Amino acid sequence: MQFDPFIIPFNIGLYFILIYAVVRSVMWFRDLSKQDKLRLQRGFFGRSFGQSLKEIFMESLLHRKIFKTNFRLGYMHMSLAFGWFLLILFGTLEADIFGSSHLNAPYKAIFFKYFNPDHGRAGFEAVWSFVMDFLLAVILSGLIIAIIKRLYSRIVGMKKTTKLRPLDKVALTSLWMIFPSRLIAESFTSGAYGTGSFLTGSLGSWLASFLPAHEMAYPFWWLYSLSLGTFFVLLPLTRYMHIPTELFLIFARNSGITTGDKAGAFTDIQTYSCSSCGICIDACQLNFSTGITNIQSAYLLKGIRNNENVKDIAFNCLMCGRCDQKCPVGIELTPIRMLRRRAGETEHVEKSILKRYFPDKPSFNPVKVSEKPSFDFLPSSRPVKADVVYFAGCMTHLTPSIRNSMIKILDASGVKYKFIDENGGVCCGRPLMLAGQDKEARELINFNSKLILKSGAQTLVTSCPICYKVFRESYYLDIEVLHHTQFIKNLIDEGSLKLNFMRKKVVYHTPCDLGRGSGVYDEPRDVLRYVSRLQKTDFDNENSLCCGGSLGNMKISYKQKQIIAADAAARLTKDNPEILATSCPLCKKTLAAATETKVADIAEIVAEAIMLPNLMKEKSNPMLIVKEPVTI
Amino acid sequence: MDKFGFAISQQRQIDFEANRRDIAEYISEKEPSFRVCIECGCCAATCTTGNFTPFSLRELLILLKRGENDKVRDNINKCMLCGKCTLVCPRGVNTRNVISLAREAFQDRIKNAV
Ligand code: SF4
Ligand code: SF4
Ligand code: SF4
Ligand code: SF4
């Protein structure tokens, strides 16, 4: 029997964290809604199981997505996670192959060197020792980067990390101690017995040349065991909880569970899955354009975990979704923020240690603005009948050239349509939702739904991505909803819209709510390619920028919005295109004020390109006779 | 303007004793751009809500500044937060935030004020 009292702290920590992970998973499972429970069960015993395992390997161990964004950061995460994983794997195999017995308790693998100091002298054993040393070296290199990163960002004040609480400090110190203490312990033992490979062997023999290696080794084995044990026990209280949580998250997500619009266990799981990698901070325009560095998603999640009042953070965000797109863990950051907006002001509660290990079921009451309905002044809607209805939206009414272009296109293509908010309509409701006022938004949604359904239309066309997103996600319309770029694409494909090719250099700015928000990337580009010379930018598709005018952020000032807009416009027009095209009236308005380049909506460009014979019908429309000069 | 006639006009005196400026102060503290409004009325002219009902943001802003909060409280929830007013405002007043803050204030923040 190989035993020594120094293994006790490690054993306590290990069994504690294993049992804890199971208990916490059961708690999360218990808190899931009924449907989500079913989904998870089906996912766990179904096809998505393999997918989840693959994802765990690629993301939790290799950190492929972090590698893609930032090589150094990726290497740091990979060396720590994958290196540690391999060290455990090879250590276990080592104990199994070379140890005295098979199927050993974990501690025998972790402290193999201590119990088998003679191991690794020659032949296959030496090769194995080399591998183990190599893995340790990889982990240590990652650790050095991690330490430098923390110290460096402190020095330049890049990241405003809130003060670490005493327990966090202990956990962090113990994590940092694990591998150096293993290195020193193994080196001393190797030095005393003349074993070890390139790392522990050389360091060991050097240390043994002036120190009593045999006596020095023992305390370091204690230190190694103690740091492991402490780290494991404190892990649930720190951000390292993301390690076990992410596994659960991957299974849940692959089973088809989404955040939806209710806070619950899944939101909780996502909140704890954040590894604080900081990628969302780098992606955020509020950070790199305006220098606001305390509202990014990493801080939001941290605030939620610590039960702080995160209202100010939750509302100071463009809701552009750039961080969502880049988050390597795949946390649904914007939906979570939306939920927090609805929660409004919350009270900061300092939780007891027990409550931090086993938090209560997450719950908060949405704020109510008033008991009475806010919009009972709206008239009852007059039904209009049509197959296609066009809803311009508030923002399009503020940019009449887009509205007129759309009318021109609709007329030229001969579509039978009705313009349902011709004389000014009711807001689609998304701005209220973004302000966290869901109940009020519902009143508007009901009003518009009735209007649309009464028309008996099969297709709803809108010019505004904000409306488009909310029509698709929060209205229960059983009809086809199209953004005008999609609609124009259809018209071109059917041949009902004949367009001239214009030799203009164009770059395209993808609006947040159309691109990342609704996944419409290709149609606008196809249309633009059809009529102009579309060029690439550094910010295409998923990586597109926010114009800065977002209705999602009420907290930044007009100045700050201008700065974001100017910055975005400058990046987009780097190659001097003739036109900066977009497909959102709000983007158009915001960007046009921030750049010298001509900014135009796709509808305007298309309207300009319509072939003459098609235009004959247009004369019938008096609105177009006094149209804005289109200066393309 | 609805009734043209010789009805006795309402009292127009502003009573600074009775009026409470707490809410206006609360708003300008949190959203300084509230102070630079020149009461031009562009916001009211473009307003989505104003298209359906006699709702004027300009009027509400003036009343807020005067501290005549009753009418503001009754009407401020009619705004749809659509953001047109913010876009047209020549002074760059962050009107949506002003409205939100006013709602918040009437809700719970400054309980004694209203
Ligand atoms: S939210 Fe995602 S991107 Fe941001 S720190 Fe957490 S894991 Fe990284
Ligand atoms: S949604 Fe956009 S503005 Fe908000 S935190 Fe993410 S990147 Fe920043
Ligand atoms: S448009 Fe701006 S400056 Fe004019 S009244 Fe409205 S808020 Fe005031
Ligand atoms: S945000 Fe409110 S006040 Fe401003 S235009 Fe829209 S409805 Fe009118």
What's this entry about, in short?
The complex is a heterodimer of chains A (632) and B (114). Chain A is mainly alpha-helical. In chain A, 57% of the residues lie in helices and 5% in strands.
Describe the structure.
- The complex is a heterodimer of chains A (632) and B (114).
- Chain A has 632 residues and is mainly alpha-helical.
- In chain A, 57% of the residues lie in helices and 5% in strands.
- In chain A, the strands form two sheets. Chain A has a four-stranded parallel beta sheet with strand order 2-1-3-4. A four-stranded parallel beta sheet of chain A has the order 6-5-7-8, with helices on both faces.
- In chain A, helix 1 (7-31) runs parallel beside helix 11 (213-234) and helix 22 (400-413) packs across helix 30 (602-609).
- The radius of gyration of chain B is 15 Å and the shape is globular.
- In chain B, helix 1 (22-30) packs across helix 6 and helix 3 packs antiparallel against helix 4.
- Chain B is mostly helical.
- The longest helix of chain B is centred in the last third of the chain and has 15 residues, at 95-109.
- Chain B has six helices and no strands.
- Chain B has one domain: Alpha-helical ferredoxin (Fumarate Reductase Iron-sulfur Protein, Chain B, domain 2, Orthogonal Bundle), CATH 1.10.1060.10.
- Chain B starts with 21 loop residues before the first helix and ends in a 5-residue tail after the last helix.
- The site of one iron/sulfur cluster has 15 residues of chain B, from helix 2, helix 5 and helix 6.
